[in-house]
Amino acid sequence: MTTTEEIYHLYQQHPVISTDTRSIAPGSLFFALKGDKFDANTFAEKAIEAGAAYAIIDNPEYAKGDKFLLVEDVLTSLQDLARHHRKQLTIPVIGLTGTNGKTTTKELINAVLSQKFNTLATKGNLNNHIGVPLTILTIDSSHEMAVIEMGANHQKEIALLCSIAQPSHGMITNVGKAHLEGFGGVEGVKIGKGELYDFLNEDASRVAFINSDDNTLQEMQKTRSLQNVVYYGKTINNDNLVTGKLLENAPLLSFKWNDKKSSSYNVKSQLTGSYNLDNILAAVCIGTFFGLDSDEINAGIEGYQPKNNRSQIMQTASNTLICDFYNANPSSMFVAIENMDKVKADRKVVILGDMFEMGPESAVEHTAVIQKALAANVDERIFIGKDFSSQQTEVDNSNLINATFYLTAEDAIIGLKENPIKNATVLIKGSRGMALERLVELL
Ligand code: ATP
Ligand code: MG
């Protein structure tokens, strides 16, 4: 069997990893991972033909010469290699987890820190047991800092990702209702996400950035007596390194922030959604902590424009759209509806699609979202999907005002063609599987 040290030695000469034979980088190390449908051991030879320097495999049948390195388990070997590489690095590694806002906060932190440092951040949403090691293995000697997103839908996953990325700094954006099925309810989510705090607490030099307005995070930190905490928030509080205040949400956010020296700065962001102020303040806090000046921090925030269907503003001929069809869960639905309640606009419409992976709490949570939307200060509500539709009967009929239910997105498309929406600010939000981007051309 080939050891991690031996593979690391080859990695130093071949520092690019490939896992897909359709895109083999010449001279790369090919890791033959197993997917749901494929066993990449069967593609190892093809990878070498396509230019990979070595193929790491775990089935001896496919070893066709000295370019094939046999290991016990390819995935573990990839993770071990990443962990070994991380141990050689002395740069700050910021690990980010949480229920909502990880990618947005990661992008914002990177937008800020890259004003001063050569940073490496997770690409897109590569935040799992494969994405994190692949990201770590793209850090090279030119990088001065790394920002690593860590996602989880079950216990022990964050502990594993921490053992690989070994964050010197970390933050949990928030703890809410998502992946309830895999975590076993909200208490399970708290334990799962708390694995980041557990890791930070193993070493007094590791720093946790915490939103001081978030009671759940405060409670989680107190039960562990975290040793090294830096706070940020919206409530004025002497402990905060950075405090911020929303100025306008129309629907782009303007805000002001100040540091401990009490200078105050006004900033206009390209983000919408009042919940995004928490994400922005996290990035401002981390920028301040790492010694960036206010011009650098503000340039980073002002320059960040989401292009990833996460609270992204799109102006069409008829409407202003808040495209949030990347994902949805009860927590993010609630804050998105609260935001629509407050946003400044003449006409407001919410289009909400089913939330997936909800387990036994699905019915209750869909009903709660319907009620939240009915109570919000908006002009029209459209619910799409079988989970919302099946809860329609749970709501008192007299409350179902300006509310339409469609069983499928196809039905909604027909409905929107018959009754087009015009001159409105429209929130479109649902789970990825609902693919609500299909509605955009009708709006
Ligand atoms: P994933 O689990 O898919 O990686 P994520 O945690 O990376 O998600 P983002 O992709 O940044 O989160 O944001 C997804 C959606 O979550 C946003 O479009 C928005 O609706 C919501 N959201 C973002 N930030 C917050 C926040 N601080 N609190 C609540 N909801 C948020
Ligand atoms: Mg993400």
UniProtKB/TrEMBL annotation:
This is UDP-N-acetylmuramoyl-tripeptide--D-alanyl-D-alanine ligase. Belongs to the MurCDEF family. MurF subfamily. It comes from Mucilaginibacter conchicola. Its EC number is 6.3.2.10. The keyword Transit peptide does not apply. ATP binds at G98, T99, N100, G101, K102, T103, T104. GO terms for biological process: cell division; cell wall organization; peptidoglycan biosynthetic process; regulation of cell shape. Keywords: ATP-binding, Cell cycle, Cell division, Cell shape, Cell wall biogenesis/degradation, Cytoplasm, Ligase, Nucleotide-binding, Peptidoglycan synthesis. InterPro entries: Mur-like_cat_sf, Mur_ligase_C, Mur_ligase_C_dom_sf, Mur_ligase_cen, Mur_ligase_N, MurCDEF_CellWall_CoF430Synth, MurE/MurF_N, UDP-N-AcMur_synth. The keyword Phosphoprotein does not apply. Residues 17-83 form the Mur ligase N-terminal catalytic domain. Signal peptide: none annotated. It is found in: Cytoplasm. One of its GO terms (cellular component) is cytoplasm.
